[in-house]
UniProtKB/TrEMBL annotation:
Location of region: Disordered: 1-25
Stretches assigned to the Cupin type-2 domain: 52-121
Stretches with biased composition (Polar residues): 1-15
Lineage, opening ranks: Bacteria, Pseudomonadati, Pseudomonadota, Alphaproteobacteria, Hyphomicrobiales
Domain of life per record: Bacteria
Pfam families: Cupin_2
Name of the protein described by the UniProt record: Cupin domain-containing protein
The organism of origin for this protein: Rhizobium indigoferae
């Protein structure tokens, strides 16, 4: 009898997979995504891992992710603002080397007022390359 703990959770994936870097896409909220590990690339059922960038002088649209948490590591750039909360009332500054956690369902906006692109390594517990995003246009004018 095989040990169930060592069996893959996804029967379609039975070996380690290497994913080569691929193209990028602009997400609904405005940041640029490059998927690595995803449902589409390797058959992941619980995890997405990739890079996210926010170009210099740009911001995301106000949005939330209903069904998943997001963890980020800022790998390059000067500084971004992350506005969050029901009315985007909280602002935190994120710098290269900082980690950022965004809980499921929390409205947020990222703003890059610097002259350098901001780059992140990101992971979330939604394996889809095109994550579930709920745009919140009623909050867009709160953050300048």
């Amino acid at each position: 009898m095989k040990n169930e703990a060592t069996q893959p959770k996804n029967p379609q994936v039975s070996t380690a997979k290497v994913v080569r870097g691929s193209g990028s896409h602009v997400a609904e909220q405005g940041s640029v995504y490059r998927s690595g590990v995803s449902a589409e690339s390797v058959g992941s059922t619980m995890l997405w891992l990739g890079t996210i960038s926010l170009p210099a002088g740009r911001r995301t649209k106000a949005h939330r992710h209903e069904g998943h948490e997001t963890a980020l590591l800022m790998t390059a750039g000067q500084e971004i603002e992350i506005w969050s909360g029901t009315k985007l009332e909280q602002c935190e500054l994120v710098h290269a080397g900082d980690y950022l956690f965004i809980p499921a369902g929390v409205p947020h906006v990222a703003v890059n007022r610097s002259t350098e692109n901001a780059e992140f390594l990101g992971a979330r517990n939604d394996p889809a390359a095109n994550e579930s995003v709920v745009l919140m246009p009623e909050l867009d004018n709160i953050v300048p």
